[in-house]
């Protein structure tokens, strides 16, 4: 149903129109959606958040949803083999996936009951790492108290890590370190002591963390430029030429349209079935797979979770692509204070968080709260409910009219405000002075020490470990403040720190990262296959192929800008433990290997290795070097051979005697592909 389209509403015509509010929600309700309890995921806008007492199943159908397949798991084979071989293949493949789930950090992670059932006693020995958590408090937070003290909710990644799995991970994470003269020096002088199945190869580690997946071209570039040269090159994306796949994004007709053009051409776009908010996501996926500006795209993904505005909300079809271009991408490697300032004047954020409704005599606190809780100091940053109220009063007057940001002085509260350690007379309704007061506040919180720590913590989680050492977070926060929120110096400090290089294999790919890495390692080409028949479809094969990837990521519950609530996606492994999601990813890898998706061109699995060895064991070794850039451990190698039902010395042809697709998929189900 990828091509279905709901005609967009025309936002911005009514000065009091609220694009985020769901039907039936009072216009000036402080929050249109419930706030989460500790260890409780956000609910959808307008829906109650689920009540849970332990980390939730997050599968293809979202939070708390049961597996979509009878018996708990989708098919692991789909190859039509006889029952005996299929059963053995299923168990071997599940064992590989189970290994992937427990090897991160050398400790048991949160395996789902379904996957533990497949693995039997071995998984039982690993332990039920989900653990249990409790909630403390209610959704009501007394004015004057700090949310972090009342503890009615907590920072998202931290809440997921409050389990036995999180404690186990922390034991295996790097404990501390120091900064070196540069990334290359840090790589050379850092000894990797953590338990991991990944090769302790600095070039591979760099490629796994700073891109969406190593490729032969990326590794060749690192070798040619050196670690320092490659990092410097990636930090200047404007000097990196667009790839052919990026140039072909012109085939997505709405990408270059301004919000005004999108409003004016609404009817024509509807007739063509164009969906601007989805084409933006399609383009993001294309860049993640094929762009050479990989670090830039990783940072765009990071900021889209940190300063999150969902792709799809009433108004998103008009404004979200502009927010992507003019806020996130504009500042992704620039200045976070400037990003936050621009965001707070952008129609997408103002509509998404109901700021268009807020006025001095009827204050809406949504944007003020998220500016503090999610976009700057964080829930532990020291603010109180009184601070939220004061910030909401100060920010009144900002809104949207005729598709553009507008300031309405008649709606602005005039009077002294105090928020954290920021004070301002705010004694004028003059638009320039009133806006200057708001901007001064936004700039202040963007450079607050708590913001520096919060940004540093999130960057360390993204690039280093789900439980990064305090030494690194403190170092990054200091660099952030010293450089007034500029991002490149912070990243250089991170990549020059021994903690980064010591953390090999300490991150598990989330569903999007797994699928994009699979496309990259298989060398999928954006050109349509020779046998593709586009029929009379109005969209090009490239546009259709991107939407197919997009739709698959929706099934997996993780696609760019897909989180409906403003907290963005969690960035820790225990938030994504789902057998259904894992197996769905493996099955998609099988689809790619079998070249069923003709909108793109795929290398046949028997062609992945040039001049493949004649014996099964050597062939598996060669295929592993091609797909995961290293040999498998003896255990994983034996499991892969079990998938084919052969021994290491068995002579096989280029098709692995007909099992090459299953063997390749098994390698892509291994820890070596799940970890980064």
Automatic annotation (TrEMBL):
**What does UniProt list as this organism's lineage?**
Bacteria, Bacillati, Actinomycetota, Actinomycetes, Micromonosporales
Enumerate the residue ranges of region (Disordered): 1-86, 130-149
| Chain intervals with Pro residues compositional bias | 29-39
Residues annotated as transmembrane: 92-111
Q: Does the keyword Membrane apply?
A: yes
What spans are recorded as compositionally biased (Low complexity)? 40-50, 59-75, 130-140
Species name: Micromonospora zingiberis
UniProt KW keywords: Membrane, Transmembrane, Transmembrane helix
| Entry-linked InterPro entries | DUF1800
Could you identify this protein by its name? DUF1800 family protein
């Amino acid at each position: 149903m990828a091509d279905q389209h709901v005609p967009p509403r025309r936002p911005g015509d009514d000065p009091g129109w609220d694009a985020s509010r769901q039907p039936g929600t009072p216009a000036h309700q402080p929050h249109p959606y419930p706030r989460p309890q500790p260890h409780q995921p956000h609910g959808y806008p307008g829906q109650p958040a689920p009540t849970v007492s332990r980390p939730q199943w997050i599968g293809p159908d979202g939070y708390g949803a049961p597996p979509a397949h009878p018996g708990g798991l989708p098919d692991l084979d789909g190859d039509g083999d006889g029952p005996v071989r299929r059963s053995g293949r299923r168990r071997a493949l599940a064992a590989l996936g189970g290994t992937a789930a427990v090897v991160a950090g050398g400790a048991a992670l949160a395996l789902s009951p379904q996957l533990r059932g497949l693995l039997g006693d071995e998984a039982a020995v690993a332990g039920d790492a989900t653990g249990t958590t409790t909630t403390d408090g209610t959704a009501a937070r007394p004015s004057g108290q700090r949310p972090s003290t009342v503890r009615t909710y907590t920072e998202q990644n931290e809440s997921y890590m409050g389990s036995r799995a999180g404690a186990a991970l922390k034991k295996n994470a790097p404990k501390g370190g120091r900064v070196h003269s540069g990334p290359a020096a840090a790589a050379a002088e850092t000894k990797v002591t953590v338990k991991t199945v990944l090769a302790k190869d600095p070039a591979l580690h760099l490629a796994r963390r700073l891109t969406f997946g190593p490729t032969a071209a990326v590794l060749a570039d690192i070798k040619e430029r050196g670690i320092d040269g490659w990092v410097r090159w990636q930090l200047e994306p404007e000097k990196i030429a667009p790839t052919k796949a990026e140039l072909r994004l012109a085939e997505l007709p709405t990408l270059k349209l301004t919000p005004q053009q999108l409003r004016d051409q609404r009817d024509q776009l509807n007739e063509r079935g164009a969906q601007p908010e989805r084409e933006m996501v399609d383009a993001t996926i294309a860049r993640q797979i094929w762009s050479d500006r990989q670090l830039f795209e990783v940072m765009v993904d990071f900021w889209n979770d940190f300063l999150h505005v969902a792709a799809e909300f009433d108004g998103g079809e008009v404004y979200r692509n502009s927010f992507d271009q003019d806020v996130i991408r504009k500042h992704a490697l620039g200045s976070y204070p400037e990003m936050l300032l621009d965001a707070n004047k952008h129609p997408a954020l103002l509509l998404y968080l109901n700021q268009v409704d807020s006025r001095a005599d009827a204050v809406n606190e949504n944007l003020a709260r998220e500016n503090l809780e999610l976009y700057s100091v964080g829930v532990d940053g020291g603010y109180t409910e009184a601070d939220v109220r004061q910030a909401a009063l100060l920010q009144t007057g900002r809104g949207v009219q005729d598709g553009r940001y507008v300031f309405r002085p008649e709606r602005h509260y005039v009077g002294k405000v105090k928020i954290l350690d920021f004070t301002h007379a705010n004694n004028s309704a003059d638009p320039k002075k009133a806006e200057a007061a708001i901007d001064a506040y936004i700039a202040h919180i963007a450079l607050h020490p708590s913001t520096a720590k919060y940004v540093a913590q999130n960057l360390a989680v993204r690039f280093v470990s789900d439980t990064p050492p305090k030494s690194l977070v403190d170092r990054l926060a200091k660099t952030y403040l010293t450089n007034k929120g500029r991002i490149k110096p912070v990243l250089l400090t991170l990549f020059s720190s021994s903690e980064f290089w010591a953390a090999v294999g300490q991150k598990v790919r989330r569903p999007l990262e797994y699928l994009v890495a699979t496309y990259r390692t298989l060398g999928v080409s954006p050109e349509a296959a020779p046998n593709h028949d586009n029929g009379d479809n109005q969209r090009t094969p490239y546009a259709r192929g991107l939407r197919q990837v997009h739709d698959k990521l929706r099934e997996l519950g993780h696609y760019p800008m897909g989180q409906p609530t403003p907290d963005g996606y969690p960035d820790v492994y225990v938030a994504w433990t789902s057998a259904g999601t894992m197996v769905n990813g493996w099955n998609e890898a099988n689809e790619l290997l079998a070249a069923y998706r003709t909108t793109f061109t795929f290398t046949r699995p028997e062609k992945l290795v040039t001049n493949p060895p004649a014996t099964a064991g050597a062939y598996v070794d060669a295929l592993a070097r091609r797909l995961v850039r290293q040999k498998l451990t003896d255990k994983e190698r034996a499991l892969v051979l079990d998938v084919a039902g052969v021994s290491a010395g068995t002579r096989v042809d280029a098709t692995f005697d007909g099992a090459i697709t299953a063997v390749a998929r098994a390698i892509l189900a291994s820890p070596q592909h799940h970890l980064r």
